[in-house]
Amino acid sequence: MTRKSAGQDKPLTDLWPGQSVPLLKALHILTRDGALNADSRRKLKQVLHLAQLIKPALDWALAEKDAPILADLGAGKSYLGFILYDLFFAKAGKGTVYGIEARTDLVATAHRIATDSGFDRMRFIESAIAEAALPGGRADIVTALHACDTATDEAILFALRHEAKFIALVPCCQAEIASALDGAPGPLRQLWRHPIQRREFGAHVTNVLRGLFLEAHGYKVRVTELTGLEHSLKNEFIFAERHQRANAQARGEFDKLVAQLGAAPSLLRLSDESRELPAAAG
Ligand SMILES: C[S@@+](CC[C@H](N)C(=O)[O-])C[C@H]1O[C@@H](n2cnc3c(N)ncnc32)[C@H](O)[C@@H]1O
User: Fold this and answer.
1) What are the residue boundaries of the structural domains of the chain, listed by start?
2) pLDDT the model gives residue 183
3) Who lines ligand 1 at CB under 6 A?
4) Which residue from 279, 35, 69 is spatially nearest to 165, judged by alpha carbons?
């Protein structure tokens, strides 16, 4: 769809049919006169790409469930939740979108925008993800876009607690494994010798382990890129759909990799209390 908005040179080509321009102004993605700066364009593009990628999950939830529930974790300004509500939940006339966010000011602003927009099936919970619980204790779809560091692991555990059928993650910065690898021995230690390599390898390994952890818990996992790297460096999209209770082979691969590295995202490791972190090999 192409709309020419005042105050900018380029036409506003990014919007979906029927998408609310007043909402984008309330979110400050568009300025009052309809302009879109480079940062806003990037953010809008990320959110709309994510909406496209998870559309099958949204279509399924809205078709199959009487009261579908989507929880967006580490919601920030709740761009994602608002846009998904506008594009899918408002039109469907059913379903609830929850935004969970630790910052009081962001929760208050999101609440005000939802009220002003008449989005009466949006809810905002001020909480750490690790401590959050939805009324009814379940969610059909869990999203976490750029939830910082271990907040993505909190999101994974939240999704398991709420028996989510679909989980969509775009992880953010990750420091935990890089710091655990600092000086760690093992046959692979050349892979993380220098700080920049440790950071990048640590981030990569964290996401590999997250994928295996989800597979171990019965999810089918697809890992792709969200948008082009020109839009964000934090661009890995992990999409998981539950199709069985557990997968012992994936559990074995998770344990093997953790043993080889001597490091794992601690929240995922500790979530299974019957297991000890295997000692680093070599
Ligand atoms: C980088 S922002 C991303 C916000 C939003 N998802 C987006 O993509 O625009 C990360 C947000 O997660 C929130 N956050 C970080 N750790 C959290 C946690 N453990 N529990 C709840 N919120 C958290 C931060 O306050 C921040 O608003």
Assistant:
1) 173-216+247-282
2) 85
3) 74-77, 79-80, 101-103, 106, 128-129, 145-148, 151, 154, 172
4) 69
